[in-house]
Specification:
Length: 181
């Protein structure tokens, strides 16, 4: 396959969001019998409008196969992977690994990457830890909510969405090449 990771163009944005929602929904449906919308479009829009946001579309042989949204802090280089997805039907072909490796190359000044995934998403946990080199550094739940907002990960007591009952936070500290003179 001929892979490319390109900046998301405006014409593809709606389909990108739909494909991302479908991919996230599939993982939740595999775990829970009945679940409401896992990833509202408003969450994707929030990510896309965050300062430093860059959205990428993964293309293989001319067809969209996934994508990612990263938040880049040029000053601190402590960057965040908000979303990474592979379209339903094309998983387990190395696309996720291609997306991540390309993001690392594109943002080689990054000191630390951070991301989160639900506690039950074993494929995601395997991918981030064993394939990408992240480390689990925190577990958000009703006893230890995410610091951003009490219900950002569905950890408030009124949460009815089982998908966000607990989230792992991952970090990957990047080795910086030292130049010896």
């Amino acid at each position: 396959m001929n892979f490319a990771l390109i900046p998301l163009c405006e014409e593809h944005k709606q389909q990108f969001k739909k494909d991302m929602q479908t991919a996230f929904q599939q993982g939740a449906v595999e775990k829970f019998d009945k679940i409401e919308e896992v990833l509202p479009e408003s969450d994707i829009d929030h990510s896309l409008s965050t300062n430093g946001a860059i959205a990428y579309e993964a293309v293989a042989d001319g067809a969209s196969v996934g994508g990612a949204i990263v938040i880049i802090d040029e000053k601190s280089q402590h960057n965040h992977l908000d979303f990474l997805f592979v379209k339903v039907g094309v998983q387990s072909k190395g696309i996720g690994q291609f997306i991540w490796n390309t993001i690392e190359r594109l943002h080689s000044k990054t000191k630390v990457w951070e991301t989160c995934t639900p506690y039950f998403e074993k494929r995601n946990i395997h991918f981030y830890v064993n394939r990408c080199g992240f480390h689990i550094v925190e577990f958000y739940n009703k006893y230890h909510p995410a610091p951003h907002t009490a219900n950002e990960y569905g950890t408030d007591n009124d949460s009815t969405n089982e998908y966000f009952d607990g989230m792992f936070r991952f970090e990957k500290v990047m080795l910086q090449k030292r130049i010896i003179s």
